[in-house]
Specification:
- This protein has 431 residues and is of the alpha+beta class.
- The protein is 32% helix and 22% strand.
- The strands form five sheets. A five-stranded antiparallel beta sheet has the order 9-3-6-5-13, with helices on both faces. The chain has a four-stranded antiparallel beta sheet with strand order 2-1-16-17, with no helix packed on it. It has a three-stranded antiparallel beta sheet with strand order 4-7-8.
- Strand 7 and strand 8 form a beta hairpin.
Length: 431
């Protein structure tokens, strides 16, 4: 069964983070690199370096001052790496709003396709090829089913995830599926909500998903493009037969009626970082602990839909780093996929798209943040926006840097300077 969270209302601000992943990397990554327990890929080095410099003086610090009281605040630049837990959330919200304006104005469903863990070893050797097959097989399952049964072309947005709650290898595909689509003959928008009377033949869909995936996997083997350790085709086909005897998993949730509901759900699964810093419960020397939900252990053991029990995992950096970094995406590999009406060549008439008056998450987040005490560009005491002064960059070698960025003692680059008329002397003295 796929490890996932049930749908809840979006929460914009979760409070202060107790721990930063960058601090743990800064403490133990260099030591780990001397004797790594797993091979470190180039993209993994790049991801770690991005996390370590995110919101530091290396990327630059913007200084803002209140024109009334002269209070100075810092705004640190993000690394914008998709594996960074600090940068992923707001980027996801903005992406979801862009997608919303292109979605069909009909109910959508959240579907999860999960690969059997028997394939984990093969996927690790052929990540790009097999994850592509996973997304294509999942999309073809519903495209084929809706085309043959209703004669329609659905819209599909999918996100590939490689991790479970414990950050182990757990390959699955989150899909946002329009529960209907555009009629291929008439071009009309068709809503199939209620036509299935809340019944879907899961076994039929599971078999289709399994067959689509296995057909492409065998083709990959026959073309000689599959990295494997099978002695011959007979041994490989024996493995394929064992896969066909396993019950493949598809999880289909109830239809979400409005695009706003769909966007809330998309925001939880698309582009999010592998480990949220809010889940880090402690960092004690060489050990790090994070919370996870154990979906095999429920509050009400007789009810499989009851809340999962939250547990804590404690790991040494020798075990934590390879566990986490195995989920760094391959270079130039797209984790978000679009199929059907939402695909590259899909054409949706404007009258079929979601209405502009629906909830805009990025605007709502921005409006709430603008007047928040957490906003460094806003002075809560004077209830006014602060004014940009200048940006500082620390370009010295790493060995020469100290924990504090002292403007007076160290070289720095000033991008731009804006003199504030009110309280000018006070601001300059504070700087």
């Amino acid at each position: 069964m796929c490890e996932h969270h049930h749908h809840k209302e979006a929460t914009f601000f979760k409070g202060e983070k107790k721990y930063r992943l960058a601090d743990y990397f800064n403490s133990w990554w260099d030591e780990y690199c001397k004797h790594p327990t797993a091979f470190i890929e180039p993209e993994q080095y790049k991801a770690v370096n991005a996390i370590r410099v995110c919101r530091t003086e290396v990327l630059g610090i913007d200084y803002y001052a209140c024109p009334e009281c002269g209070e100075i605040s810092e705004v640190r630049h993000n690394c914008n790496h998709r594996f960074c837990p600090t940068c992923s959330w707001l980027d996801t919200v903005k992406w979801a709003d862009r997608i919303k304006s292109q979605m069909l104005d009909i109910p959508h469903r959240h579907v999860i396709f999960t690969l059997p863990h028997n394939l984990n070893g093969l996927v690790k050797r052929n990540k790009k090829e097999l994850l592509t097959i996973l997304s294509r097989a999942a999309a073809d399952t519903f495209k084929n089913w809706m085309l043959n049964k209703y004669g329609i072309k659905p819209g599909i947005i999918g996100v590939i995830h490689t991790f479970g709650e414990k950050k182990n290898a757990h390959y699955h595909f989150h899909m946002i599926l329009s529960w209907g689509g555009i009629d291929i003959k008439t071009g009309e928008l068709v809503d199939i909500t209620g036509k299935e009377k809340d019944f879907v033949n899961y076994y039929f869909l599971k078999d289709k998903f399994c067959n689509f995936f296995i057909d492409d996997l065998v083709k990959l083997f026959d073309c000689g493009k599959l990295n494997h350790n099978y002695v011959n085709r007979r041994a490989f086909m024996k493995f394929i037969k064992s896969l066909q005897q396993i019950s493949w998993q598809i999880h289909l949730e109830d239809p979400m009626k409005t695009p706003a509901d769909v966007i809330r759900y998309i925001g939880r699964y698309s582009k999010r970082a592998c480990l949220s810093e809010y889940k880090i419960s402690s960092i004690e020397g060489e050990y790090i602990s994070f919370t996870y939900k154990d979906y095999a252990d429920r509050v009400d053991k007789s009810n499989p839909k009851s809340d999962a029990i939250e547990k804590t995992m404690r790991l040494h950096y020798n075990n934590f780093f390879p566990l986490l970094l195995q989920h760094v995406a391959l270079p130039y590999f797209k984790l978000v996929k679009y199929y059907g009406c939402y695909g590259r060549f899909g054409k949706i008439p404007q009258e079929y798209k979601s209405k502009p008056e629906e909830l805009n998450l990025s605007e709502q987040v921005e409006e709430e943040y603008q007047t928040s005490e957490n906003n460094p560009k806003y002075c809560a005491a004077c209830t006014c926006a602060k004014v940009y002064i200048h940006t500082l960059l620390d370009r010295r070698p790493k060995k020469e840097r100290t924990g504090q960025f002292d403007i007076k003692k160290h070289d720095h680059l000033i991008y731009k300077k804006l003199i504030i008329e009110k309280k000018e002397a006070k601001i300059q003295n504070a700087a």
